[in-house]
Design the sequence.
């Protein structure tokens, strides 16, 4: 890949997302089409493609963070259930006598 075709580096820092931002849906990704580049060039407009890829990356990062949080919550609930079962195991046996 030549230097001319490389994607420009992004500034470091957090990504700001407006409250009006809506996450991408799978059908939006599969049906997305890009305008061809201007006269004399072949292919797609790189800026359009990079903007779309950035949006997909943000949505994927959000989903992965939500999934990780869900897994932590599941682990916490399982541990609480095991603890509760252990604490109450003897009382059930005592009641059966």
Sequence:
């Amino acid at each position: 890949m030549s230097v001319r075709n490389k994607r420009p580096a992004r500034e470091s820092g957090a990504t700001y997302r407006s409250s009006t931002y809506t996450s991408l849906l799978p059908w939006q990704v599969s049906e997305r089409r890009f305008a061809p580049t201007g006269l004399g060039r072949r292919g797609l407009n790189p800026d359009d493609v990079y903007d779309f890829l950035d949006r997909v990356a943000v949505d994927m990062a959000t989903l992965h963070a939500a999934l990780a949080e869900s897994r932590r919550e599941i682990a916490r609930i399982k541990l609480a259930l095991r603890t509760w079962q252990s604490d109450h195991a003897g009382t059930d046996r005592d009641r059966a006598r």
Q: What stands out?
A: The chain has a mean pLDDT of 78. Helices lie at 26-31, 46-96. The chain is about 60% helix and 0% strand.
